[in-house]
Amino acid sequence: MLKRGDSGAPVKTLQRGLNKVGSLLLIDGDFGPGTEAAVADARVTLKRPGPPVADDDVQAALAALPDPFPPLTAAGVTFIARTEVSSPALYRRMYCRPIWPGGESGVTIGIGYDLRFVDEGALRADWAGALSDAALTKLSKVLKLQGTAALATDCREVELPLAAAVSVFIARGLPKAMTDARSIYPQIDALPPARRTALASLVYNRGARLTDNDPARQERREMRTIKTLLAENQPDAVDEQLDAMSRLWDPAAQAGLVKRRHLEATLWRAGFGALTTRQEDVSGRAAAALQVTPTRAPTSTTPRCAGS
User: Is 254 contained in some domain?
Assistant: First the structure.
């Protein structure tokens, strides 16, 4: 049995199993409050009531579960979700209600679910059973619109439970990200899962456009170079382009995006093993192993959720 205060390889194995049910844990081998909360949630999902400890039955049930999204594995799902919302605790505190991330984004819900690019049919299909009809009607008023703080505020009474957000992310967000990534990087399926995840994360965040809107800034230059490198069978040079892409954002104002690109580069170079290392131990130019400033910035006035 594993419980709070335990540590080591058995806890890492448990954390990997918990991530199959969307726990979004950093694999650090520390059975702390985050892992304890994840065990409590997993017991509900697995229909195994009991205290927040991982007995043999819970561990066996988690081990028997399939990967939630095999093209990326549970580790890849967790990587992208954490770069979006940082952690389950932060999601529940700041992201469980609609926000506007800024820029050209629309009002965004869940784990990077941008309402600017969704129609009402898709919204209702994706979130049926998780949100009330009244909540869906409220959100439908901001569909296809570029976001503003005022639009997000108008929807702030809508609460998005974490379990529902993870479910929609896996069922809709990640398949679309893979399809979009495949449209510009057709070699993606031949890559190992960690490298697939780096490209899927990039496209999930930036989209699949390869043409520049600003010829002077050339904001899609590195994405085009990645396409060329993969086509020429030079995958080991891709990480340099992911790192170089960080030039596009002000590290003071948009630290989350800068760190996200460096994390993707680290993932490309070192694989999922890099995600088990704490910030100070990560080698190379990426130095924030998933303790990253989220790429979405909630306002301080966002009300907390009741405990999704």
Answer: yes
**3-state SS, one letter per residue, for the chain:** CECCCCECHHHHHHHHHHHCCCCCCCCCCECCHHHHHHHHHHHHHHCCCCCCCECHHHHHHHHHCCCCCCCCHHHHHHHHHHHHHCCHHHHHHHHCCCECCCCCCCCEECCCEEHHHCCHHHHHHHHECCECHHHHHHHHCCCCCCCCHHHHHHCCCCCCCHHHHHHHHHHHHHHHHHHHHHHHCHHHHHCCHHHHHHHHHHHHHHCCCCCCCCCCCCCCHHHHHHHHHHHCCCHHHHHHHHHHHHHHCCCCCCHHHHHHHHHHHHHHHHCHHHHHCCHHHCCCCCCCCCCCCCCCCCCCCCCCCCCC
Q: What is the mean pLDDT of residues 33-59?
A: 96
pTM above threshold 0.90: no
- Give the model confidence (pLDDT) of 116-144 as tens digits: 999 999 999 999 988 999 999 999 999 99
Query: pLDDT band at 104, cuts 50/70/90?
Result: confident
Any idea how long the chain is?
308
- Based on the fold, state whether residues 137 and 194 are members of the same structural domain: no
Kindly tell me the burial class for residue 211, based on how many C-beta atoms sit within 10 Å of its own C-beta (0-12, 13-18, 19 or more).
exposed
Supply the pLDDT for residue 285.
25
pLDDT tens digit string along 191-217?
Answer: 999 999 999 999 999 999 999 999 999
Range of the domain at 141: 97-160
Residue 109 predicted with pLDDT over 60: yes
218 with 251, same domain: the answer is yes
